[in-house]
Each structure stands twice: as structure tokens, then as C-alpha cells.
Design goal:
The chain is an alpha/beta fold and 305 residues long. It is 36% helix and 9% strand. A hairpin with a 5-residue loop joins strand 2 and strand 3. It is elongated and about 95 Å long. The relative contact order is 0.08.
């Protein structure tokens, strides 16, 4: 018997059927299959076929049949989503999505309220519902901040060789950055737009402790241009307010040596390692969507420097 439990397969169920026809005991069947005898007992009890149909001699058609047992087992394992089972919870989630809430905010708020009982749901379940058949029928995916028609694959292409020095990897970043207790640690990302609007883009710069958000308009994505604007902002701050800056591995940040603060870079395909700016950009996209240009719209209450 293995260390990890695995469901019975159709081949094993056929073996159980054959051995039952040979009138073998449950213990011998379990030994032959390498299973616990309780597993075989439960299998026969759960999937024993009862039918009111009788054959021409008047005998009822009942017994253990492997194909029928497999079908019954598959039916039990097929579970509908929590939102499909709870219409009132589904209506609340859809209402909050239409009000501009993100799945993380909806899940977190329900967790804080704790009522009604059983109303908790993870943000992953909400995302699966949005991108599932029911969510597509309601056209819910445009309500998300990213507005993607399909969810991104978990793993992208393999990383290529990078000109970034190994000592600037995020694993060498000071440990105090993770605690968010010291002011002066920044995260940076680039907000880009559709090609038909030209090369203009916006640099998004967020301080991890205070969430202070700075937006910088750029005419293009040249590294010297992008890093130059960031340097202007950091040099206007005291040294204690510009301790580190964290980037992803985009080519527009390759001139990082120009900065007056140490720069660190996320691992390949790991933008979540600079979650403060990623979360801020998600909110920013509501005001600066992909199909707009930075000179056409600016977020309310913010100024593009």
C-alpha cells in the first residue's frame, strides 16, 4: 500500500468485479490490489447497483458492475462551485463586482463580516466563476481591473540571459523591506498602452510603507529616459526616504545604475514579488485603461509629472 491515497481506477474495479464473480473474499481482493480491506468494502457498498428491472426469469438486475461503479464515483466527485450552490452569495458577489470591487476585496470583506454563516469564499473561487461558463454568460470579466478575456497561464516562457548583475536579485534585498516598517523602500513598474497611441507610457512608483504613489509620464520606453525620470524624483528626497527600489526584469529598467539608491529585481515570471505596485496598477487601470493614452485621461486626484 502506498504512502498517498489514490482513487480506485476502472481497471481495479474490473478486477474487483472478476474476483467477486469467482467468490473471492474481500480480504483476498484487498491483498491482491494492495488496498485496505475497508476500501474494498466501501467500494462495493457505495457502488452496488440496484435496479427495479427484472430479467425474463423474474430475477432483479442487481450487483457490482465496474462501468456503473466508475460512473457513480465520477458523479460524486463532480462538484459544482460554491457560487452555483449559493444563489444569494452569487448575487452579492456579482453586485460587488459591478460596484467596482475586486475579488480580493470581496473575499476579504466577507471574511471580516463573518455573516451570514457559510458566506466566506476565496478570491480564487470568484475568479474561476468569472471565467467559467456562468460568468461568461453574465459577461463578468470586463468588470475586473485587468479585463482579460482569458486567465493567463501560470508559467510563461523560460527566462533568457539577462544583463542584470546577480547581486541585484531580490533575494539579496535587505530583510527590512518585507516588514514594511521602514520608510524609503520603493517598487516601480511601467504602465503601457496600445501601440496605436504611440510610445508614451507612465512610470508607477509606490512606497511600500506609506503606499505613496507617484506617476511619471514618459514619451517612450528608453531605459535612460525612464530611469532618468525616476532619478529626478528620488534625488529630491532625503537619503533616508530613498533606501531601495524594486523592479521587474523589463528592459526599460536596465539603466538602474543611474539611480541614487540600490536597485533590486524580481525573479523571472514573478511580478507578485513587487505586490504593492502591482496592486496599485490594478486600481490605476480603472482610470487609465489599456485602450487610452496618458495625455487623454489622468486619474482623478493625481497628476502626471
Amino acid at each position: 500500500m502506498g504512502l498517498h491515497y489514490a482513487h480506485l481506477t476502472l481497471a481495479e474495479r474490473r478486477t474487483i468485479f472478476r474476483l467477486l464473480q469467482e467468490r473471492q473474499s474481500v480480504g483476498s481482493i484487498a491483498t491482491l490490489l494492495g488496498r485496505h480491506r475497508s476500501t474494498i468494502h466501501r467500494e462495493i457498498a457505495r457502488n452496488f447497483h440496484h435496479s427495479p428491472v427484472r430479467d425474463r426469469w423474474g430475477h432483479p438486475e442487481r450487483g457490482y458492475y465496474p462501468v456503473t461503479a466508475q460512473r457513480l464515483a465520477d458523479r460524486r466527485r463532480t462538484r459544482t462551485s460554491k457560487l452555483a450552490r449559493r444563489p444569494e452569495l452569487c448575487a452579492h458577489v456579482v453586485q460587488q463586482l459591478r460596484a467596482g470591487w475586486s475579488p480580493q476585496q470581496i473575499s476579504g470583506r466577507l471574511r471580516c463580516l463573518g455573516e451570514p454563516p457559510g458566506s466566506r469564499i476565496s478570491h480564487e473561487s470568484i475568479y474561476r466563476y468569472v471565467y467559467g461558463p456562468d460568468g461568461r454568460e453574465l459577461d463578468l470579466h470586463p468588470l475586473l481591473a485587468c479585463r482579460r478575456r482569458r486567465r493567463r497561464v501560470r508559467f510563461g516562457r523560460k527566462p533568457r540571459a539577462s544583463p542584470i548583475a546577480p547581486e541585484h536579485a531580490i533575494r539579496f534585498r535587505p530583510a527590512e523591506v518585507d516588514d514594511r516598517q521602514v520608510f524609503g523602500h520603493w517598487e516601480c513598474d511601467l504602465v503601457i498602452f496600445m501601440r496605436r497611441h504611440g510610445k508614451a507610457n507612465v512610470t508607477s512608483l509606490v512606497e511600500r510603507t506609506s503606499r505613496y504613489h507617484v506617476l511619471l509620464a514618459n514619451p517612450d520606453r528608453r531605459p535612460v529616459q525612464v530611469i532618468g525620470r525616476i532619478r529626478e524624483v528620488l534625488e529630491s528626497l532625503p537619503a533616508a526616504a530613498r533606501r531601495t527600489v524594486t523592479f521587474d526584469r523589463g528592459f526599460e529598467f536596465l539603466a538602474y545604475r543611474m539611480l541614487p539608491a540600490p536597485a533590486y529585481f524580481c525573479d523571472p515570471q514573478s511580478p507578485w514579488q513587487k505586490g504593492a505596485v502591482e496592486n496599485a496598477n490594478g486600481r490605476l487601470r480603472r482610470h487609465l485603461p489599456l485602450d487610452s493614452a496618458p495625455e487623454q485621461r489622468s486619474p482623478g486626484g493625481w497628476v502626471l509629472f
